[in-house]
């Protein structure tokens, strides 16, 4: 995989994407290192979720290149399917399987492993996320925060190189949101997973991100550490958006 594998968890180079005549993503490039959390921050409709979907393989790449662990996983006309990219995904709606227990939800992406190892992996991630007493429960029996933890455990159990989070905490109340965000950061750092967090909430990006990319109308306006983005915004839009 070359030297890039040592420094790249996720890399997007020259990504441009159109929906009809509308340019949703406009020449976006960035790299997320293993163990780093990059907050992709911007208003609704700015292209941040489309960028995440292109990284995941949920949209066909029209222009540019996506690499994971130094390996090209997508370029125009040639792309690995999502399930072969070693990515985990967590979305706002949790998307748990209501007819499966917590343990079976966590084990869903582990079908290639022997049964005993699947159960061991489920117990491991349930323990790390405080779900060890809920393994036999069903999603409807859990609180919103517990459901979010199950979604995170399910995404992390296959030990992905890259984690993609799309507004995953917005449905939680503010007290619970802070707790789950802090727990999520700790788990992702411990796992050494390169993480792309899509959010419209400046506080969430500042709280979770090692770096923040501010996006507007499909382009990255500024990419830097939270302290630098807040203390020295690069554009009037960045200053206005953070001051909200």
Biggest β-sheet: strands ordered side by side in the sheet: 7-8-9-3-10-11
At the first level of CATH, what is the class? Alpha Beta
Quaternary state of the chains: single chain
* Radius of gyration based on Cα positions: 18 Å
Task: Please count the helical segments.
Answer: 9
What would you say this structure looks like, in words?
With 244 residues, the protein is α/β, with parallel strands linked by helices. It has a single domain (33-51, 83-243), classed as 3-Layer(aba) Sandwich (Rossmann fold), CATH 3.40.50. It is 34% helix and 27% strand. It is built from nine helices and eleven strands. It has helices at residues 4-7, 48-56, 102-106, 115-128, 144-156, 174-191, 202-208, 226-231, 236-243; strands at 10-19, 22-32, 37-41, 63-68, 71-75, 78-79, 87-91, 162-166, 194-199, 211-216, 219-224. It has a six-stranded mixed β-sheet, sandwiched between helices. Strand 5 and strand 6 (78-79) form a beta hairpin. Helix 5 runs parallel beside helix 6 (174-191). The longest helix has 18 residues, at 174-191. The protein is globular, with a radius of gyration of 18 Å. It starts with a helix and ends with a helix.
Structure described in brief:
With 244 residues, the protein is an alpha/beta fold.
Topology summary:
Blueprint: H1 4-7, E1 10-19, E2 22-32, E3 37-41, H2 48-56, E4 63-68, E5 71-75, E6 78-79, E7 87-91, H3 102-106, H4 115-128, H5 144-156, E8 162-166, H6 174-191, E9 194-199, H7 202-208, E10 211-216, E11 219-224, H8 226-231, H9 236-243
Helix pairs in contact: 4-5, 5-6
List keywords for this structure.
11 strands, 9 helices, alpha/beta, globular, Rossmann fold, 244 residues, six-stranded mixed β-sheet, single chain, five-stranded antiparallel β-sheet
